[in-house]
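Summary for the funding panel

The consortium committed to producing paired sequence-structure records for every protein in the target list. Below we show the first two records in order, beginning with the earlier of the two.
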Amino acid sequence: MTHAAADVSRWRSVWRQLPLIVALVLLWVFLWDQVTVLTVVTGVLLALGVTRVLYLPPVLLSGRFNPWRGLLLGLRMMYDVTIASMEVAVLAIDPRWKPLNSIIAVQLLTRSDLVTTLTAEAISVVPGTVVVDIDRERGLLYLHALGTRTEADIDRVRRAVLGTEERIVLAIGSRSQAASVRAARRERRANDARSKGAPA
């Protein structure tokens, strides 16, 4: 790679991280509860230190946001939280219910640290499921799920996780990530169609 190409790549990385840097600066200002030159400057320095100096995996944003997909993601999150809250409440007061839960491994479709983190957070927000571990190298989420008595229940949880990841990618992921999750969705649907068409 030439020196000029390296400079372009470095500036592109900084540009993609700009929203994250701005968010960290705003958080720092909010923590101090005052907007001064000192708080802004120290916030910028700390944000640059966190994103560029500390030994952490780089958080690179795709630079893409689809407002329609973002709206659908938010609406689906509210729906999932509402339905799951009612289901967990019913189970909590049902004297006949005997807990039977599972630790489920779900293979994610992408390797993006940002998408993995957002998917884990979104899954944990929904009552009845909580992420207990992440295998970053292999792109695996391990989550604890309530009411998984059968293989169909476990498969339903896996599909819910992959659906959440898909909606996040379509909202904020890169074009290549969006294309890959769409291809995976088409493959899942084709497999489902073949399974339903197979003789019993």
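The next record, for a separate protein in the list, is shown here:
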Amino acid sequence: MSDLSGLPPIPVASRRDVVADRLREAITSGQLLPGQKLTEVALAEQLGTSRAPVREALRQLEQEGLVVSYPYRGTEVLGVSQEEIEHVLVPIRISLEQYAFRKAAERLDADSVAELESFIAMMAAAAAAGDDSALADADVRFHDAVVSLSGQPHCLQIWRSIQPRVRAYFRRDAGHYADASVVAEQHRRLLAALRAGDEPELEAEVERHIRTHFAEPRGGGG
């Protein structure tokens, strides 16, 4: 079982969001493993803060589906299983993003294209640097931007509710590519389909894109 020694202390002035960010990164990167117990006392001591922001951060992460609290057992890290990816996250994403991409295509302009291209550039740079976390972040930001561009508040609400767990499997998959530069290329094709605006082809490309994930992590993943 992993321990908490790798989590660096944070300034006393930092509050819930910083604690949540640290724990979220540790969970999605696999530093904290599924089933690992998290206690307010140990986390507060390790992170150099009081128990209150730790308690608030754990509640936030539970809402995001990254931890779960059991009566009399405390809080445990939740993993993202292949079954969940295949039968929950992928089907939800396909339905949600096919609709969001269609709506986004109607609102696409030069500024939004430039923003999406910037995220693709970030993916390419992260792949070149071997930075799996930055690669996953840029990937999430690309999809977040498209769903936001769609102008559909309920789509964005659903996306934001699953986004932390989607990022967890993006982060898992980022470490599995033999050549991570393919991620940027996948998103270039997705952007090209978005710009073309052909709905059947766009929906097909979105589904192809979302179904591109790995059946097994390459060791050490979340």
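Regarding this second record: Residues 82-107 form the longest helix (26 residues). The beta strands are 37-38, 67-70, 74-77.
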